[in-house]
Amino acid sequence: ITVLMHERMAIGNTVILHQYINRVLELARRWPRDGGVASADPVLRQALAQVYIEGRALRLTGLRYITRQLRGEAPGPEGSVLKLAFTDTYKKMAEAATQILGPAHQLWRGAPGAADGGRWAFQALFALRFGIAGGTTEIQKNIVGERILGLPKG
Asked: Could you tell me if 45 and 39 are in contact, meaning their C-beta atoms sit under 8 angstroms apart?
């Protein structure tokens, strides 16, 4: 289990997530919508703020997790909580990009009009893999329920 906990932290690379969140924020500031830019939409701004907050919280939690490891403490089941939160936040980040771009989010690398070289078509699909890689979301929820919350197996 300890190896899996380290893997989950490696998968939940919050630095990369935060870089993508910043790219989505920049995309919203420049992508045209209704005579202005996408970031002028208050509903989208709220969704972006939520993704930013969750990404920041994940980063700080990840730093706390790393600090525990540097102190020589073994990783615990909180790695599963981090993976669940990372998966959810990454999906929200990709969904925000698709909301910003509208149908243009489907344009792949090399397609005329593809935003950021088609990065967002890839990210929309790539975000789905985190629910499977490193243990499915359902397995992670079982680990959290049994090991952190003390719920019975079943």
From this structure: yes
Q: When comparing pLDDT for 133 and 95, which is higher?
A: 95
* Closest CA relative to residue 131, chosen from 80, 95, 88: 88
Domain range enclosing 21: 2-148
Q: What is the pTM of this model?
A: 0.82
Query: Using alpha carbons only, what angle is made at residue 68 by residues 152 and 16, rounded to the nearest 5 degrees?
Result: 95
Distance, in Å, from the CA atom of 71 to the CA atom of 1, rounded to the nearest integer, reads 19
Residue 123 has phi, psi (to 5 degrees) of -65, -35
In a domain, 153, yes or no: no
124 is a domain residue: yes
Residue 17 lies in a domain: yes
Q: How many domains does the chain have?
A: 1
Amino acid at 17: L
